[in-house]
Amino acid sequence: MSDTTSKPAWMLRSLLEIPEVLHAVLLSRDGLMQARTEEISKDEADTYSAAMSGLASLCQDPIFSGGAHNPWLQTMIEFDSRYVFAIRAGAGAYLGVSTTAAVDIAAISRRMQELVGQIGHEMAVADRQGFGYHG
């Protein structure tokens, strides 16, 4: 099963119903692309996943979060013509979405949270063994 026809990829397509969403990617905590919408190539999705993993890791640093009792939930980065959103999406997984600057920020944020709330268990990604990831 390919990364655009798997069950998680099928679920990601619902995000494209929000106007101005460009693509969505499900990735593992260690930056491996797990599923993607067809609007992003596999090579671009692999690069995107590695970058999103690094971003999520940075956001979870205690310097930014204030410590273990204040876990990271989501991030939005604004560019001149785009937004990038990242959200925790089940155990060991993150959901990344890119949009144009014309997107309804509240609508896409809400839809991402709803999707994760409804099917986060389907998005969970097991940690790879031997790489030091625990929890």
TrEMBL record:
- InterPro entries annotated for this entry? Mycobact_SerProt_Inhib_Rv3364c (IPR053141), Roadblock/LAMTOR2_dom (IPR004942)
Q: Top-down, what is the taxonomic lineage of the species of origin?
A: Bacteria, Bacillati, Actinomycetota, Actinomycetes, Kitasatosporales
User: Where would I find the Roadblock/LAMTOR2 domain in this sequence?
Assistant: 9-99
Record's PANTHER family? SERINE PROTEASE INHIBITOR RV3364C
Coiled-coil-forming residues are none
Query: Which is a Pfam family this sequence falls into?
Result: Robl_LC7
List where the protein spans the membrane.
none
Q: What is the species of this protein?
A: Streptomyces luteolus
The entry's protein name is: Roadblock/LC7 domain-containing protein
Looking at the record's lineage, which domain of life comes first?
Answer: Bacteria
